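Sat 14:20. Reprocessing the chain from the morning session after the first attempt stalled halfway. Input below, unchanged.
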Amino acid sequence: MGNVGVIAFAFGQPEELRPFPVGPSNNMIRKVADQIVAQEEHRGNTVYVAAQWETSGLDASEERTLLVSVRNDPDTHYIDTKGVLDKSMEYFVRRDVERVVLVAHPLHLFFIKFLIMTKIWDAGDLAIDHQYDGMMREVPYDRSKTNVQGWTRGPIRFVGYLAKAFVTKRHGS
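Finished this time. Tokens:
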């Protein structure tokens, strides 16, 4: 028994912020994160969750949840993946979390893990738990008409976006 962190990384963003259509990717990320939280709590662990507004419908109690980005807040409405990772890790360190589960679209997860593994991104001393990685296969691309983040619509667009972001050092919509 111990403290576990779960980060639910958003993948795609709806054009209309109201009502609350979050798209198929974020719905599945939320469901996978909920399943992981339930399994870890069943094992007797205390689970802390960090989520973006698009993936925040998690069943964890409020005192154990960090909302990394807020839908109608111009400062946090959009936070890139690195910003989500950094804020989440700070939150987890303050709560003595021992290991962290990353919940993301499979291709997104691959690049997040690659950037952490190569030390391009710093995840601190927290262990990244890979035991649930297979569950991410269920997360689809967001090809919904309301998705304004074109790079989340398919693998070629996503890899193209990453190349552009790497060269220009600019991220986001």
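The helical segments are 23-42, 81-93, 106-117, 155-168.
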